[in-house]
Structure formats: structure tokens, C-alpha cells
Amino acid sequence: MTLTFHWFLPTYGDSRDIVGGGHGLPAGAASGARPATLSYLRQIVAAAEQTGFTGALTPTGAWCEDAWLTTAMLAGTTERLKFLVAFRPGLVSPTLAAQMSATFQWQSGGRLLLNVVTGGEAHEQRAYGDFLDKDSRYARTDEFLHIVRALWRGESVTFTGEHLRVEDARLARLPDPVPQVYFGGSSPAAGRVAARHVDAYLTWGEPPDAVAEKIAWINGLAAAEGRTVRHGIRLHVITRDTSEQAWAQARRLLDGIDEATVEKVQAGLHRSESEGQKRMLALHGGKRDRLEIYPNLWAGVGLVRGGAGTALVGSHTEVADRIEEYHRLGLTEFVLSGYPHLEEAYWFGEGVLPILRERGLWRHPAEPGSAEPVSVPFATAGAQ
User: In sequence order, what are the beta bridge partners of 34?
Assistant: First the structure.
């Protein structure tokens, strides 16, 4: 299967340094030297579309701009790029979410993907008026996706659950195509939701053995539901012409961050209810001396940022090798980012993607057989 790559939209600001972010941060906690203006975000989506990314993940939370509004305003500035919109099912009714999805598909020409974020931080959920505990939030997500899927099928839905209730709900317009649903979570409750409802299960960037265990876990749960699920991974990337250049950039990202800052961030992240966040923290233990946790897999981002905390670091060929290794485990989708997002989109798109193309693992979404022809820059250039 051809690999699919998505980029990331930093709707909290961007920088040449690591920008603090991640679930559970209070409003205003994330910032950067480059504000997340529409003009700057347009540059990022243009770079992603040109270099061959299929979609762009837009985060959700108190620390960033609203994903639905931002992507709706960006859709008209792109032609092919899809938008992987993160949203929290407890903060909007399932009927409204289904309707919003149908409208987005109609107005964008079918370029909506959905990333369902149940929410792993109780204090952040309470700020939005959501006072359910973690397991109850996953139970509500289960009900939510049951209702939304039925509405997308054109059914008239009357449903009474433990958390949600709708009566005679129906869509005037069905989404075309039905949006693919992406979802991540490492707890048993998350696994049950993934098995029943989602199209693509996402994990944060753990070493291959741990990722293989997750894939087997979800595949087993999905098989019991009579379903199959695609698998993807969320990673940062630092890729350069040589390995030395890439690792120099990785070291530079941490050079200006003192130990007091790291300790403060780590203390906050240790209060997280998220199983995925706990797994990220365990990779480095808050120490700078063991950050390469697997060849070319660097946990330095997680010292100063919540959420996805690992990066692929190395030459273009080394990064391509690691991606191919993950693919052999069963991963087909990669959601990537880098600091700053504009320049790193080009480093990866012009450095790594051509190598994967030569190996027969990837092709530009606009190559023959897709909607439009394209000339892929540097497709035959050698890379180290």
C-alpha cells in the first residue's frame, strides 16, 4: 500500500525553536515568533500541497486557535490538500458535528478528515464545561460516533444513551465522501472506541517494538468487532542532507532551554491523565542523556512539550529507512511536523519523499491517476 503523509498546522504560533504546546496547557500557554495568522498558515498549506502531503492536521485545545474555523478559511486557498480537523465530541452535539462535516465536504470538494480527541486532561475539559471523568468521556465518544455514523448513512436517528440523547435526527445533506475518522488513545477504553468506530488509529512516536504491540492490540479488538483499521503515527521530523547536520539542529533546539524550564514542564506533564502522555514521559525520564531512544528516534521534544514528543532525526536516507521500518510493522499513514513548520515541510518533502518514491512506497497525490498532473521537484536527486 502506498504511504500517506500529512503535515501539521501550528495554530498556536511557530518558531525556529520548540514551541510549547500540547493538551492540558492553559489558554495562552503556547506562542511563537511567527503568529498563527492566516497569511502564514497559507504559506504552510501551500508548501504541504506542493511537496506532496495529502492532508494537514489542525490541533484542538485552549492553547490554539479553533480548528474548524481556521481550516474553513484555509480551504479556499488550496486545491487538493485535505484538512485533518481535530475536535472534541463532548463539546458539540453529534447532529451538529455530522451537519458541519457534510457542509465542509460540500464546500471544500470533499477535503475533510476528522481527528476525534476525547480529551485526556480533566482540568482542560472542565474549562469547556465538561465534568465527566476519563472513562465516561470515552463512553460518550462511543455514543457520539454511533450517532454520527448513522446520520452519515442517511438514517433517521433516535437514540438514548447514558450520556447523549437525540430524537428524530436526520441530515438534509449527506457528506460526500463520508469523512475518514482518525483517533488515538492508549487506554483500554480508547481501544474499544477505536475498534468499533474509527478508520485510522494513530499512535505517538514510540520505538518500533512498542508500536507493533499497539498495532496488534487494536487489530485484535477490531477483529472481534468484525472490522479492520488502518494505522498511523504522529512524529516530528528533523531531516537534513547529512546526519551530522540533522543532529546539530536537534541539539540546537534544546541548547537554549535551562533545567528549570524542563523540570517545570515535566512536573506539569506528570499530572496528565493521558496514558499516551505517560508513555511519552517514560521514554526519556526527564533526562537529557538518553534522548536517542532508538536509532534516529529522538525524545527531546517531549522534554519541553506535551503531546507528541519524539522526532525522526537524521539524513534523508536514514529518516526514509526508519519510515520504511515502521511501514513494515503495518503503518500506512504518517502525521509529521517540524520547527519551523514552513521550512521543515520543504526539507522533508524535497529530501525524504523522493527517496520513498524511488523505493515504490509513495507517490505524489497529484501524479497521473489523480485529479491533476504534477512535476515533483528533485524527484531524481540523490540524497544522503
Answer: 14
C-alpha cell at 180: 475518514
Distance CA 180, CA 182 (A): 7
Calpha distance 130→165 (Å, rounded): 16
- Quick: pLDDT tens for 72-115: 999 999 999 999 999 999 899 999 999 999 999 999 999 999 99
Measured at the CA of 178, the angle between CA 173 and CA 183, to 5 degrees, comes to 130
Are 220 and 240 contacting, i.e. CB atoms less than 8 angstroms apart?
A: no
CB 85 within 8 A of CB 58: yes
Interhelix angle for 38-51 vs 67-75, to 10°? 60
The tens digit of pLDDT for each residue in 287-308 reads 888 899 999 999 999 998 888 9
Cα–Cα separations (whole angstroms), residue 321 to 32, 182, 282, 380: 32, 25, 25, 17
- The three-state secondary structure class of 143 is helix
298: which strand partners?
292, 311
Please state, in angstroms and rounded to a whole number, the distance separating the CA atoms of residues 209 and 297: 13
- Report the 10 Å Cβ neighbour count for 373: 10
**Strand spans (E) along the chain:** 4-8, 55-58, 82-87, 112-116, 157-160, 165-169, 181-184, 200-204, 230-240, 292-294, 297-298, 311-315, 333-337
Task: Kindly report the backbone phi and psi dihedral angles of residue 93, in degrees, each rounded to the nearest multiple of 5, phi listed first.
Answer: -70, 150
Grid cell for residue 79:
486545491
Is residue 32 very low, low, confident or very high in pLDDT (cuts 50, 70, 90)? low
| Predicted TM-score (pTM) above 0.90 | yes
